[in-house]
Amino acid sequence: MEVKVEPLKGFSPQIGLLVSQMNYARKTTRQAVEGLTMDQLDFLPGHDGNTIGALLLHIAAVEKGFQIEIFDGRAPNEQEMQEWGAAYSLGEKGRENIQGHPLEYYLSKLEEVRERTIYELSQRADDWLYEERMWDHHLSNNYFIWFHVLEDEINHRGQMRVIRKMIANC
Length: 170
Hints:
Elements: H1 13-33, H2 38-41, H3 52-71, H4 78-89, H5 91-97, H6 103-122, H7 126-129, E1 132-135, E2 138-141, H8 142-168
Antiparallel strand pairs: 1-2
Helix pairs in contact: 1-6, 1-8, 3-4, 3-6, 3-8, 4-5
């Protein structure tokens, strides 16, 4: 088995490298949750923690939020906030609203959101990555923002692995 970061067909070189990394992160996220039951996805590791299911939906919500902001050039509307707000914020809203779904529900949300990201990135050239924009009150660029989507997924995948170990020890 080869594990590489390399340019991908259908993308400009730098965007292809970014997508290659995003694909690998997603593959390992899927592996980290493979075979989990609904009860395991809903396991709350502490009174102020997040479930694996909530973390999976959060990964999709963060990516969806940046799609809306970057690709659509706007803030999420009321309907989008209703659908994604609890997952984006997590915390109490997430604990109250994100539960009772099988693994396939979360994986399909991740896939649905990623399909649009991949399409949109395939329509752009490398220079787009370096276009500057304000993000979280800081000067940033599109490359950093999509790197942040990747880093957020990797961070939460680590949390999921810890929670999965907690479940196994219960």
